Amino acid sequence: MAELAAVSHDDVMAALATVNDPELHASIVRLGMVKEVVLDAPSVRLKIELTTPACPLKDKIQTDIEAALLPLGLTSVVIEWGAEVRASNPKEGQKAIEGVRNIIAVASNKGGVGKSTVASNLAVALAKAGARVGLVDADITGPNMPTMFGLEQGLQRESTDGLRPVERYGVKLVSIGFLLPKGTPVVWRGPMIGSAVRQLLHDVPWGELDYLIVDLPPGTSDASMSMAQDAPISGAVIVSTPQQVSVEDAMKAVAMFEKLDVPVFGMIENMSYFIAPDTGARYDIFGHGGAAAAAEDLGIDFLGEIPLELAVREGADNGEPIVYGHPESASALAIERIAGNVAARLSVLQRMGN
Ligand SMILES: Nc1ncnc2c1ncn2[C@@H]1O[C@H](COP(=O)(O)OP(=O)(O)O)[C@@H](O)[C@H]1O
Ligand SMILES: [Mg+2]
Predict the structure, then answer these.
(1) Do 244 and 334 lie in a common domain?
(2) Ligand number, closest to the Cα atom of 308
């Protein structure tokens, strides 16, 4: 086995240098992802640090590493995965939120397309993958997040030190609904909404977060505008249902973010199709593929489709997001894939910006 004994640390690094991160298109060595190599031929133990714990291409990286090391006679490759999520840099005039590395906005121009459902499940999916996640309910006039997380409306109305995040399903949630008893109508004027959103972002003790997801109200509202201008949003995810009227509104949302110089990670098609649970027959209730086609037209990424599923609506009403309550369901799997895509888009964007 003289040949094996001759494998050196340098040989391993040279072989690993040929392995590219499939998203970032650069060598994992050059990207600084190889944190440790413990060589004991024919075994080797590696510590690889990803740019997100929700990396969708971990398996691909593993296969490529094994293939690169095999010619050296290294037949047992054990990888310990880690992740270090980088922070997006604020642009001029924007104020970073202390401890928050990245802000992801979930938006559309239409109500009822599933923004809040997507935002809540995206947050839970990223937390499940191991990220530190916060969620802001920025729908000031109709905060739904307490219900979607099974929390009592108004639970902090007696609080003397303002809003504090409540942790549930691994996510730190803040909602204006924490201050208002159920059913209280909120009539805010534009400038007040702007300042309320600013407070929701900046005056809350978030601690250290990899991702802060912001659930926006529909439309090019004061909330979205003031937030986009004030806080360093890393990127926006646009939710649409398949039908034309929804797609048109989603396209307006894309245009709005582009005008505000906020990158758009891509578009999601929600309620994309329905599989009848009793017969297995498929119905495209709102049509199908409209969002993907629009994404292509706009030259942005299509991040995935989520079926219309009874359990999604039940989970939202019962305060248990489907990714947590029914992780094996088609919708939950779709949202977890989308979460990986969003996290990967963010890593790519940061790499381009650095
Ligand atoms: N994929 C889905 N399958 C079933 N029901 C859904 C799905 N997405 C959203 N819903 C339901 O549709 C309604 C509107 O969703 P919501 O997330 O509140 O939309 P928005 O925040 O865009 O107004 C809610 O009752 C929600 O439970
Ligand atoms: Mg909503």
Answers:
(1) yes
(2) 1
Q: Which atom of ligand 1 is found nearest the CA of 113?
A: 22
Tens-digit pLDDT profile for residues 123-146: 999 999 999 999 999 888 789 999
SS3 80: strand
Atom of ligand 1 nearest to the CA of 117: 17
CATH assignment at residue 181: 3.40.50.300
Within this chain, do residues 169 and 305 fall inside the same structural domain, yes or no?
A: yes
Instruction: Return the SS3 of 47.
Output: strand
pLDDT reported for residue 273: 97
Whether residue 68 is found in the same domain as residue 217? no
Q: What mean pLDDT comes out for the span 109-114?
A: 91
3-class DSSP state of 340: helix
Q: Which of 149, 313, 318, 322 to probe ligand 1 with, by most ligand atoms within 8 A of CB?
A: 313
Give residue-wise pLDDT tens across range 58-99.
Answer: 999 999 999 999 999 999 999 999 999 999 988 888 889 999
Place of tokens 């999601």: 268
Please give the share of the chain, as a percent, with pLDDT higher than 90.
73
**247-299: per-residue pLDDT in tens?**
999 999 999 899 888 999 999 999 999 999 999 999 999 999 999 999 999 99
Within 10 angstroms of residue 57's Cβ, the number of other Cβ atoms is: 15
Which uninterrupted H or E stretch holds 214?
strand 211-215
Q: Is residue 93 part of a domain?
A: no
98 lies in some domain: no
Per the structure, the count of domains in the chain is 2
Q: Per-residue pLDDT for 3 more than 80? A: no
Residue 88 within any structural domain of the chain:
no
Residues 184 and 328 in one domain: yes
- Based on the fold, state whether residues 116 and 254 are members of the same structural domain: yes
- Which amino acid, residue 252? K
Tokens read off for 222 = 């004061």
Structure tokens at 221: 């509202």
* Helical (H) or strand (E) element with 267: strand 264-270
Residue 102 near residue 210 (C-beta atoms within 8 A): yes
Range of 174's domain?
103-353
Distance 159 CA to ligand 1 centre (A): 30
